[in-house]
C-alpha cells in the first residue's frame, strides 16, 4: 500500500494557518519545466483551475505577482494597461527567487519575502477552490480564491491569453 507523502510546513502554509484559512494539500512529483499542466495531469485536476504564480516587473523594476490560469498566458500589454504601468515583463528566474523567497517552480503567492502587489485573473474567482503552489516544488494547495483577495489584497485583472 502506497504511503502518502508527508509535506513539511512552508512559509505559505504557516501563513495560511496563522490566518485560519483552510487548505488542502496536493503533493505530486515535480518535473523540470512541467509547470501547471504536469501538476494538473498528475493530480487529475482541471488545468483551468490550477493557477500559476508569476513574478513580473514593471518598467521601473518594481516587482508584482500575477496569479493566472494554468492553461493561459499573461498578456503583459493588457496587464500593464490595467495596472497603470507603462510596461510589464516576466522577471529572470534569479530575480523572481530574490523577490519571492521561493524557488521558481515552487512560487506561492502567500508569504513572499518581499511584499508585492498581487493581481489575480478575475475568472479564477468563479471557482470555489483553486490550486496554487504551496511554496515548494511538487506541492499544490487547494484554497478559496477569496483568500488571495482578502489576505493579499489581490486586485482583479483580465489579462489572460489562450495558449
Automatic annotation (TrEMBL):
From the UniProt record, which GO molecular function terms apply?
A: aminoacyl-tRNA deacylase activity; lyase activity
InterPro entries tied to this protein: Prolyl-tRNA_editing_YbaK/EbsC (IPR004369), YbaK/aa-tRNA-synt-asso_dom_sf (IPR036754), YbaK/aa-tRNA-synth-assoc-dom (IPR007214)
Q: Does the keyword Methyltransferase apply?
A: no
Q: Which domain of life is it from?
A: Bacteria
Q: Key word Lyase present in the record?
A: yes
Q: What are the residue boundaries of the YbaK/aminoacyl-tRNA synthetase-associated domain, all occurrences included?
A: 36-150
Biological process annotations from GO: translation
Enumerate the UniProt keywords alphabetically. Answer: Lyase, Protein biosynthesis
Enzyme Commission code(s) on record: 4.2.-.-
**One Pfam family named in its UniProt record:** tRNA_edit
UniProt lists the family membership as follows: Belongs to the prolyl-tRNA editing family. YbaK/EbsC subfamily.
Entries under PANTHER family matching the protein: CYS-TRNA(PRO)_CYS-TRNA(CYS) DEACYLASE YBAK (PTHR30411:SF0), CYTOPLASMIC PROTEIN (PTHR30411)
Q: What is this protein called?
A: Cys-tRNA(Pro)/Cys-tRNA(Cys) deacylase
